[in-house]
Amino acid sequence: MGISSTTIRRSGLPFTQGSAGQPNAPTMAKPGTEPVERQSQAGLKPLILIVDDDAAMVKLVAHNLDAAGYRVLMARDGEQAIRMIRQDKPHLVLLDVLLPGMDGFQVCQSIREFSDIPVMMITAKGETQNVVRGLDMGADDYMSKPFDIDVLIARVRAVLSRTRFSEKPERPPMMLGELRIDLSNRAVAMAGRDIALTHTEYRVLCLLARNAGRMITKDYILTEVWGPEYRGDDHVLQVTVARLRRKIGDYQRNPRYIVTKMGVGYMFRKLEDQAGIAAAISPGGTTRESPAQPCAGRERLLQSVTP
């Protein structure tokens, strides 16, 4: 993963050396032992799959994750990772971009064909295009290497926190035009067609939809969905919103649902505002040159709301 052992030792977590100079192996989860219904297993430590072909670095990261209270599985390539995800149902995947055979982007794309498990991409520092590409493939988060292990563990904790759903009472679905959000079953449909969203996309959509007609600042969305440490990380928000728009069939130039106010944030249109926008969209799926209906009178910064 490109993290030095010096960085690992600087973390302040327990670190011991084995006889060969390698860290003593953490307690690993046995493949195939994770039950299908993970959510019902109270008290079970979260299971994290590390996908990287650098065995020494994986062991260092695994040791520190174990010391932080997580169970760990390791895969050396994409094919092995996909098999383990299907079989062991981990709670999070740490996925390096550079892998033998299938690269990390291909692996992430394959995972999204059958699972909404959170994926954190590991990219080289400064490779912005890889960050955007990874998020566009469906990754929930990213880390640029080299990095301090404390930062990695904090991001792991944040991802697991926002993707761990608690049991909630039955609630009626939200109907916003052709968009239906089933809050009880966490399912989304557009014009009767089911839409597969990641945990992060679903949270962004719900936050916007519950506050339809109000402009929500970027930092507020980042804080509520990703966590306070993500304030100012426009990349992850922009790519997630763009991916969400594609899935619900929205148009950035003349949006029917999600409106962007440059430098401020996003707003989900109220139901009555969507009709006028729909009329500006031709049956062929292209937009006419007429601008979106003005909504300046309704736009306002959202400083404090309850999602």
Question: Concise description?
Answer:
The protein contains 10 helices and 13 strands. The chain is α/β, with parallel strands linked by helices. It has a 5-stranded parallel β-sheet with strand order 2-1-3-4-5, sandwiched between helices. A 4-stranded antiparallel β-sheet has the order 6-7-8-9, covered by helices on one side.
Blueprint (SSEs and pairs):
Elements lengths: L4 H5 L37 E5 L3 H13 L3 E5 L2 H11 L3 E5 L7 H9 L6 E6 L3 H9 L4 E5 L3 H15 L10 E3 L2 E4 L4 E4 L2 E3 L3 H12 L4 E3 H9 L7 H15 L9 E4 L3 E4 L2 H9 L21 E2 L5
Parallel strand pairs: 1-2, 1-3, 3-4, 4-5, 10-13
Antiparallel strand pairs: 6-7, 7-8, 8-9, 10-12, 11-12
